[in-house]
């Protein structure tokens, strides 16, 4: 009897040990799976514009904003600007003059201070919808209020280091556009390749289509590929 009780006790201990091992294996697998699910590789989507350009206004309104309304969580969005880097004191020349440079800086400050594209793209789209008025303070204040941005925060960004900070943002942005070979406002690049251009009121180089659903389709496909999902 004592022998059988001893054997039974050893069996029970072994069973408990096995259950504990299975519990920790399951927990480890769950944690690994959770870490895997947390990996979210977004698709680069970049739009190159000039703030006082009617083509940029129409490009944002017709394609970029409707697209972002549907897939903003799947893209790494960036708004970049087109101009010329110079050796002058301010270092940047804008096609539509100094007021355009100020508009560009205002949008870059919005992106810098409010990196959520739903905020700074909405603000930028609001400004460019009335591009003739850029950089009027009243326009900036109204657009900031409409999209939940603090105008004083934007103003502090623009005036930081007596304007040198904002000009540095613009210089870097303009140089980046030059480095990737973009000269036309508006140029949309998807996954670091030109996806579509809107120039002189016409869509160009839009092999995949120029409608929001076309761009959304391409983004979703590239996003799924980036996650390693196959169907």
Task: Tell me what you see in this structure.
Residues 1-28 form the signal peptide. Its main location: secreted. It is found in: Secreted. It comes from Cucurbitaria berberidis CBS 394.84. There is one protein chain. With 231 residues, the protein is of the alpha+beta class. Helices cover 58% and strands 14% of the residues. The chain has eight helices and seven strands; from the N terminus they run αβαβββαααααβββα. Strands 2-1-5-6-7 form a five-stranded mixed β-sheet, sandwiched between helices. Helix 2 (54-71) runs antiparallel to helix 4 (117-129) and helix 3 packs antiparallel against helix 4 (117-129). The longest helix has 37 residues, at 2-38. It is globular, with a radius of gyration of 26 Å. Mean pLDDT is 88; it is low at 28-38.
Which descriptors apply to this entry?
231 residues, alpha+beta, Glutaredoxin, 5-stranded mixed sheet, 8 helices, 7 strands, globular, signal
Short summary of the structure?
The chain is 58% helix and 14% strand.
Using DSSP, what is the number of strands?
Answer: 7
Q: Ranges with pLDDT <50 over ≥5 residues?
A: 28-38
Q: Into how many domains do the coordinates divide?
A: 1
- The pLDDT mean sits at 88
* Residue share in β-strands: 5-15%
Strand line-up in the sheet with most strands: 2-1-5-6-7
CATH architecture: 3-Layer(aba) Sandwich
Write the layout of secondary structure elements.
Blueprint: H1 2-38, E1 43-49, H2 54-71, E2 75-81, E3 84-85, E4 92-93, H3 98-113, H4 117-129, H5 137-146, H6 151-159, H7 164-179, E5 187-190, E6 193-199, E7 202-204, H8 212-227
Parallel strand pairs: 1-2
Antiparallel strand pairs: 1-5, 3-4, 5-6, 6-7
């Amino acid at each position: 009897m004592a022998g059988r009780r001893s054997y039974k006790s050893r069996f029970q201990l072994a069973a408990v040990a096995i259950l504990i091992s299975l519990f920790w294996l399951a927990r480890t697998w769950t944690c690994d799976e959770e870490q895997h699910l947390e990996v979210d590789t977004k698709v680069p989507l970049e739009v190159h514009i000039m703030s006082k350009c009617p083509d940029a206004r129409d490009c944002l309104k017709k394609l970029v904003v409707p697209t972002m309304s549907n897939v903003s969580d799947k893209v790494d969005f960036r708004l970049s600007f087109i101009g010329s880097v110079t050796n002058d004191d301010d270092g940047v020349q804008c096609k539509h003059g100094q007021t355009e440079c100020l508009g560009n800086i205002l949008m870059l400050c919005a992106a810098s201070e409010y990196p959520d594209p739903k905020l700074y793209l909405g603000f930028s789209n609001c400004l460019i919808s009335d591009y003739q008025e850029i950089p009027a303070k009243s326009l900036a204040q109204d657009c900031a209020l409409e999209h939940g941005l603090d105008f004083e925060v934007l103003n502090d960004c623009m005036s930081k280091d007596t304007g040198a900070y904002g000009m540095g943002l613009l210089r870097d942005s303009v140089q980046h556009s030059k480095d990737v070979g973009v000269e036309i406002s508006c140029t949309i690049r998807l996954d670091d390749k030109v996806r579509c251009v809107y120039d002189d009121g016409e869509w160009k180089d839009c092999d995949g289509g120029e409608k929001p659903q076309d761009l959304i389709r391409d983004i979703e496909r590239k996003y799924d590929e980036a996650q390693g999902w196959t169907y």
